[in-house]
Structures are given as structure tokens and as C-alpha cells.
Amino acid sequence: MKWADLSRKRMHDGANAIGNLMVEGFHYLGLFAIGAATAWASVVAFLGMVDKGHASIDDILLLFIYLELGAMVGIYFKTNHLPIRFLLYIAITALTRYLIGDVSHHRAPDIGLVYLCGGIFLLSLSVLAVRFASHRFPSSKAIDSTGEYVGDNLMDNH
């Protein structure tokens, strides 16, 4: 029965190799598609600013959102981990952009302004909490899909 076990192991290893290839291929295809769409959208937004002949603060904040999205894709590509801080930064920038757009259109201040400022404040506290937690309780080394360690291990420094 040793031949059956060896055959089963070879079949299992072959299926794992093909499955890993397909999953990683889809993973990279998705990352490149998201990165390309982000780059394309940022170029279109920039060309729109050039066409207008000026850039408003809304336009500049939109470019910051695209920059954060691109950085997030790059970090995810390198480490296979999605940094939650980048999502929080994007949300803060998006709310700030909305707030500035709302105020610049000379709308009368109402409770919505307080909600927006409260949302920005809560997101800022979330960034602080995530930064504190990641410093106080560092994670172990990140492992990519091949089993290799990626990035720095903060626990080795203590």
C-alpha cells in the first residue's frame, strides 16, 4: 500500500501546486487591474485639472486619495497584507474633501457639518488606536503565499 500513499501524495502535491498557481495568478491579475484603474483615474483627474487651467482643493484632495490607493495596492502587492491605516487615511481624506466642497459651495452650516467633523475626529482616533496597538502589540513576521517571510519582524528588536 506504500505505492498508493506515494501516488496520493504526488496527486495532492500536484493539485496544490496547480491551485496555488491559479489563486496567485488571479491575485496578481486583480492587483494589477486595481493599480491600473487607480493610475488611469488619477491621470484623467489630473488632465481634467490641466484642461480647466487650475486646481481646486477638491481636486488636490482627490489626487491624495488616488495616491493612498496606489500606495495601498503597492504595499498589498509586496506583503499580502492590507494596511487598515491606509483605508482610514482614505476615509479621512474623502470626508475632508466632502467637507471642503460643502463649505465652499456656501451652504448654510447645519448639523451635517458637525457629523462630518465628528466622523473625521473618530477616524483620527481610530488611526491613533491602530498605531498604538501596532506599536504596543507588534505582529509576527508576515508570510507570503510561498511560505517566505516578508518585511521586518518587530518582535526581534525587543
From TrEMBL:
Transmembrane segments: 28-48, 60-77, 84-100, 112-133
Keyword Lipid metabolism found: no
UniProt keywords, alphabetically: Cell membrane, Membrane, Transmembrane, Transmembrane helix
Subcellular location: Cell inner membrane
Coiled coil: none
Single GO biological process annotation from the record: cellular response to phosphate starvation
Main location: membrane
GO cellular component, one term: plasma membrane
Recorded topology in the membrane: Multi-pass membrane protein
Superkingdom: Bacteria
Ligase recorded as keyword: no
Similarity field: Belongs to the PsiE family.
Protein's name according to its UniProt entry: Protein PsiE
Origin species: Stutzerimonas nitrititolerans
